[in-house]
Amino acid sequence: xxxxxxxxxxxxxxxxxxxxxxxxxxxxxxxxxxxxxxxxxxxxxxxxxxxxxxxxxxxxxxxxxxxxxxxxxxxxxxxxxxxxxxxxxxxxxxxxxxxxxxxxxxxxxxxxxxxxxxxxxxxxxxxxxxxxxxxxxxxxxxxxxxxxxxxxxxxxxxxxxxxxxxxxxxxxxxxxxxxxxxxxxxxxxxxxxxxxxxxxxxxxxxxxxxxxxxxxxxxxxxxxxxxxxxxxxxxxxxxxxxxxxxxxxxxxxxxxxxxxxxxxxxxxxxxxxxxxxxxxxxxxxxxxxxxxxxxxxxxxxxxxxxxxxxxxxxxxxxxxxxxxxxxxxxxxxxxxxxxxxxxxxxxxxxxxxxx
Length: 355
Known about the structure:
Layout: H1 2-8, H2 26-29, E1 37-40, H3 46-57, E2 61-66, H4 73-82, E3 86-91, H5 97-111, E4 116-119, H6 134-162, E5 165-170, H7 183-205, E6 212-218, H8 228-238, H9 251-255, H10 259-266, H11 276-287, H12 292-295, E7 299-301, H13 306-310, H14 313-318, H15 345-348
Parallel strand pairs: 1-2, 1-4, 2-3, 4-5, 5-6, 6-7
Helix pairs in contact: 3-4, 3-11, 5-6, 6-7
Pfam families: adh_short (PF00106)
Protein name: NAD(P)-binding protein
Family: Belongs to the short-chain dehydrogenases/reductases (SDR) family.
């Protein structure tokens, strides 16, 4: 047992990253996904735009979706400049099955195939569960969980048939922790992480794990705009500078919280200063298959240095609880639910008191 415990310990602590670093430098992945048809939902926001430009550097054919707010016109221009094979914008409400069906049909009709799906669209309300309108809660679940499920369900048969494909589900650290007043978001992101893991296990059982691989990711702490730091870093790599507006929790949404909770959310995003291109380039690296031997089906925090994590692949292979949803129990009860030595009859066969 001691030998096994030692084997499963981290060999060293992965470095923490907030911006692009040499292992995921855009220059290393230029043209690495040439002509790969890549669907990115929620492309109008900062994370979506960072993903679009990162996959443009890799030479992908981009299908960029939005719901109400179209991406800025300059986004197509930049993506083509950075190396995208093709760029189209498609309006799609991922919360509706019909919209997802239309998106997949349009993509396959236009390109004849799809190679990479990035479920990035998200919704996050802020308020007490007991006061939230049920339709608002359901909408969050629909955007954050049903939409990714719809698109995965629609594209997985295609990926299986062509024996290649990649799914990148943009989750959140909120999926692994309990955040009050963000119940719908936390719940749906936790479900998304486990959806990814379960679907990958099915592919592995069918012997297709190395051909169709999927991941869930925490994209880092990103405001809905790029900080000056991230702009200057990416412009150094790609020669382009642009700026969009910042979005914070609105004063109205914070005012709806109980007084004792408001102070925790007023400046909650001030610590978010990660570059959206950190997430973008980690996703590009994973889409090329760089980490599929040890990370497929798992939940990865892009703040950890990908090179450092992959260098400890044997540790990950030896511990299925790493980079996934799991829990711990007193007494060492296994996450599978069966205690060491099995169940004893006296523990489940006792009569009810009074009988």
